[in-house]
Amino acid sequence: xxxxxxxxxLLALGLSIVTTIxxxxxxxxxxxxxxxxxxxxxxxxxxxxxxxxxxxxxRAVEPDxxxxxxxxxxxxxxxxxxxxxxxxxxxxxxxxxxxEVLKKYDSTFxxxxxxxxxxxxxxxxxxxxxxxxxxxxxxxxxxxEISHYVADAHQPLHTSSNYNGQLSGQNGVHSLWESAIPPxxxxxxxxxxxxxQYISDVTNYTWKMxxxxxNLVKPLLDAEMRVRxxxxxTSMYKRDANGNRVKFYSDPVYSDAYATAFNKELGTMIEDxxxxxxxxxxxxxxxxxxxxxxxxxxxxxxxxxxxxNHKNYKREYKAWKKKGKLVNMAQNTKMD
Length: 336
Ligand SMILES: [Zn+2]
Hints:
Elements: E1 6-8, E2 19-21, H1 26-40, H2 43-51, H3 53-59, H4 62-69, H5 98-104, H6 107-113, H7 116-133, H8 136-153, H9 173-185, H10 202-214, H11 217-230, H12 233-236, E3 247-248, E4 251-252, H13 256-266, H14 269-291, H15 303-323
Antiparallel strand pairs: 1-2, 3-4
Helix pairs in contact: 1-3, 1-8, 1-9, 1-14, 2-15, 3-8, 7-8, 7-10, 7-14, 8-14, 9-13, 11-13
The protein binds zinc ion.
């Protein structure tokens, strides 16, 4: 989520305050994407990542917490790219690399319209260096950081100026798509993805990802508009016990019937984007590891840790591999 559209109770941080916050994919989506990507990794990486899977899962939402709770001014624009505001007709014509974009746009412009693909590129450089240095804490920290931004890039509305349908009378579509629907229908999702491929050109791959996502903006908003025309204001919005509309700051909160109808109209778009996030994330992790010299990750953990986790690992990996399910999202039963 971007630009202070949503909130969280911040229970994850042990705080009882409510604040504006920006979740992309909601915390449900970010956590599922990061966790599933661990199982998609090749044998040489999977056991190490599994030893730290709860850290990676829980930390997947931290960049959103950082931007709102810590109000880090640099954080917000890392989560999106308002493609239309760059006034470049084809995504192929964007300045692709970090040095290139800095030559063309100043920090004020990029703070306003977003920095997402260039931030992914920067993180990939750092993660590659962390593998080269066999720096365990950096590998884990940067792996979880990348998980967040790669997931954000697959949310089509993170690539558009009309990010909340605010330019087309569809306010609230952002959180409806990414935060409300996935937990409602996620039991049916298949989290198993193909083994990662090595990315020979990371910059190019990142921009293809942005392009694929951006191409879904119109179908997504068109689908919502079709559903909108079938509902009236009585049935469209969630209401409290007194019959008043539930609001989320200035955004309406939509009824379950509306969310269900929108999800149906979208077909498999949300699950497809979530699965693509998982696959692409595993490709980024794998590529950074290869470019970092394919270090032996088993040396970074005490073998006893891997042994202690073996039973849970087998159970979780089997469920993912055979049925595409994540069975240990809620409990934290393994040793870390
Ligand atoms: Zn985000």
